[in-house]
Amino acid sequence: MPKRIAVLASGRGSNLEALYAHFTHRAPADAQIALVASDKRDAGALAFAERNGIPAVALEMGAGHAAALATVLATHRIDLVALAGYLRLVPAEIVRAYRGRIVNVHPALLPAFGGKGMYGERVHQAVLAAGARVTGVTVHFVDEVYDRGATIAQWPVPVFSDDTVHTLAARVLRVEHRLFPHALAAVARGEIRLTDDGRADGAPYRARPDAAFALGTPEDDDLARNIAAAFAR
C-alpha cells in the first residue's frame, strides 16, 4: 500500500506541487498526498489542495496545537509527514510519535545557514552576505531542534557574483523541486531510515562535487536524471 503523506506548509506550496506531481504521476505506488495542513488559513497550499481534491486543514494554533495536530494526523491515517515551507517548530510530542517519519527540505547545505529564524529569503540573504560561492538544498529528518535532524540528501547550487536574493532563491528552488520528491520517496520505500542513535541509515545521498547544477538551462534535465538515478531502486 502507498504510504499516506501529510504535507505541512505555511505558504504558497510550490514544494507541495512538486510532491503532488511526483507521487501522482511518477511514483503512485510509493506514496500519496493524503492531507495538506497549514498554520495559515489563507495559505496557497490549502487552496492548491482543495483544487486537487486533497483534504485541507487549517491547524489550530496556541496551547492546543500539539493535540489538534495529533488528532488530524491520526484521523487521516498518516504514515509520513513532509514539511514544505512550514515555519512552525513541530511540537515535541509529534516528533516523538512520528520519529523517523517527518522530513523537511531546507534551502541551504546544512548545518550552514540553518536554525531558528533561517527560512526563505533570510537564508539566501545570509548566503550572499557571507560571500559563499556554493549553497544548495538539504533534505533531512526532523527532530526537536530546527534544522538539526539527520541528513537524507544534499545537492549543491552555485552562487554567482551578480546574484540577488531572488535569482539565487529561484535557482535553489528548482533543485528543491527535484530533490525533495526523490528523497521522500526513498524514505517511503524504507530505503532510508532513522536509526536509534539518530543517523540516517541506507546511504544518505550527497551529490559529487562535479554534479550538475540547476542553472535554468538544459542542465536542469541532467540534474533531474542524476537525482532520479541516485534514488533508483
Structural summary, described in words:
The radius of gyration is 17 Å and the shape is globular. Helix 1 runs parallel beside helix 6 (165-188), helix 5 (121-130) crosses helix 6 (165-188) and helix 6 runs parallel beside helix 7 (219-230). It folds into two domains: 1-98, Rossmann fold (3-Layer(aba) Sandwich); 104-233, 3-Layer(aba) Sandwich (Rossmann fold), CATH 3.40.50.170. It is α/β, with parallel strands linked by helices. Helix content is 36%, strand content 21%. The strands form two sheets. Strands 3-2-1-4-5-6-7-10 form an eight-stranded mixed β-sheet, covered by helices on one side. The chain is built from seven helices and ten strands. The longest helix is centred in the last third of the chain and has 24 residues, at 165-188. The model has no long low-confidence stretch (mean pLDDT 92).
Q: Which features characterize this protein?
A:
globular, alpha/beta, Rossmann fold, eight-stranded mixed β-sheet, two-stranded antiparallel sheet, 233 residues, 2 domains
In short:
With 233 residues, the chain is α/β, with parallel strands linked by helices. The protein has helices at residues 14-26, 44-51, 65-75, 92-97, 121-130, 165-188, 219-230, and strands at residues 3-8, 31-38, 56-58, 80-83, 102-106, 134-141, 151-158, 193-194, 200-201, 205-206.
Percent of residues in helices comes to 25-40%
**Shape designation:** globular
- SSE arrangement, N to C: EHEHEHEHEHEEHEEEH
User: Regarding CATH, which class of the largest domain?
Assistant: Alpha Beta
β-sheet strand percentage? 15-25%
CATH architecture descriptor of the largest domain: 3-Layer(aba) Sandwich
- Give the number of domains: 2
Write down the overall mean pLDDT: 92
CATH homologous superfamily of the largest domain - what is it?
Formyl transferase, N-terminal domain
Strand order of the main beta sheet, please? 3-2-1-4-5-6-7-10
Instruction: Detail the poorly predicted runs.
Output: none
Distance, first to last CA = 17 Å
The class by helix and strand makeup works out as alpha/beta
Number of helices: 7
